[in-house]
Task: structure prediction
Amino acid sequence: MKETQTHAAVREGYASVAQEKTTCCGPTGGGTTTDIETAKQIGYSDADLAGPAATGNLGLGCGNPTAIANLKPGEVVIDLGSGAGFDALLAAEKLGSEGRFIGVDMTPEMLARARTNAVNAGYAQTVEFREGLIEALPVASGSADVIISNCVINLSPHKMTAFREAFRVLKPGGRLVISDILLTEPLPAEVAQSVGALVGCVAGAETEEAYVGHIRDAGFVDIELQRRPAGEIFDLSTDDPVIGAAIAEFGIERARQVAGTIFSYTIQATKP
Result:
């Protein structure tokens, strides 16, 4: 799959999610009971889901990077693939009036929702959303204290470039804190080539060795990993249409085999 085709497929899929026409990356729908329970399973608190940030919860994440990023008042935070702004609004309270949050996303429909959510939550002065690719961030070099990302880099056709861009925009001593889907073994060829599996956050995923290698090669140090099975996101017993489409395309046994190799990771690293 060429880069432009990959970006187009992801953009189309997430535009549909933003317009609440479909779901992606597990059971979602923008504030449903399932979205809330899924968010709790991957690390969000009751307070996170009861406050103004909850309007940005479309159930698309695989972790909660803002919970472990140790954000401080006055810091500048960049979000790679900011979606509807859930993590942005959670971070804004911690950053305070002197801090700044910049979300980067390539999907206009997501950006529109995020901007509306920021205004409605009262964070229009400190939270900004920019259209762009995570492989070519519209952000000045050496301007960020922290970079976060939540289940997005796995969608990139050029992960190495995305991590080099993250390294570029961070200040020395800056922190990378991401949640993402990684694999214990490479995907079967038919799954890796599936557009549906790509938009569902599976086909673009790499093994831990390859993914962490990109982070290290970009220049990051002090890399720390935590993982857990991603079963709560890719539950084959649900009626989620993404899961159902995968079962229909590959068969239940193949789907089970693949599901057993999928893990949700939290990764932290530092720019020296």
